Amino acid sequence: MVSIEVLESSPSKIRIRLKGIDRAYANAIRRVAISQVPTMAIDDVVILENSSVMFDELVSHRMGLIPLKTDLDRFNLPEDCDCKNALGCSKCRVLLVLDAEASDRIRTVTSGDLISEDPESKPVSDNIPIVKLAPGQKIKLEAYARLGKGSEHAKWQPTSASVLLETAKPDEFELYIESVGSLSAPEIFTRAIQRIQQSLTEISAQIKV
After folding, report:
1. What's the total number of domains in the chain?
2. Is the pLDDT of residue 209 over 70?
3. Do residues 93 and 43 both lie within one domain?
4. CA 110 – CA 103 distance, rounded (Å)
5. Alpha-carbon distance 7 to 19, whole Å?
6. Reported pTM
């Protein structure tokens, strides 16, 4: 008999004991949590002005790695959105703007300087460094975020850790999930289970046909 026991749970991490389950299925939960649970991340950056010492490409790369708070009930994956627009819409894309300048001293531009058109879709922390500006330097850009999966790029991974540990019993495992902050750890676990169920349903439907 399969049973699940939550040993530890908080928004940042969850530890679960799985009993009566084959290792392959337990490991599937771990893998799906990493690669198939969508999160929001910056995917397209338009540099309007950049007089810093950092190349545009490096700025764009750093922007993409800033974890963003994600509400999976409000946004669609681009391929599932009914707008069918390459530029996206309010259901599948969020615009964030950065406009920062250093006046008389060196300034560290951080994720807190990003202004999102959606107050709920913002960086998980205001203290992530983006670039340093010397006096007189400026950076101005538009960043477009969308949902994606870790299987597409690491910036969409919702987990900073997803580990399956063996216990003394052959059919018992402990699953540890740690979140980057885009989604809570319990939601990552729940969404991973839902994704597996959805995949099995789709496979079953194809077999019946």
Report:
1. 2
2. no
3. yes
4. 16
5. 13
6. 0.93
- Determine the Cα–Cα distance for residues 153 and 157; give it in Å rounded to an integer: 7
What residues form DSSP beta bridges with 159? 179
Q: Answer for the pair 195, 29: CB distance below 8 angstroms, yes or no.
A: no
Do residues 53 and 142 both lie within one domain? yes
- 49 and 120 both lie in a single domain: yes
Same domain, 128 and 46: yes
CA–CA distances in Å: residue 112 to residues 68, 95, 102: 12, 15, 15
Of 126, 149, 172, the domain-final residue: 149
Same domain? 85 vs 141: yes
Give per-residue pLDDT as tens, 17-63. Answer: 999 999 999 999 999 999 999 999 999 999 999 999 999 999 999 99
Range of the domain at 172: 3-37+158-208
- The predicted-structure confidence for 66-108, as pLDDT tens digits, reads as follows 999 999 999 999 999 999 888 899 999 999 999 999 999 999 9
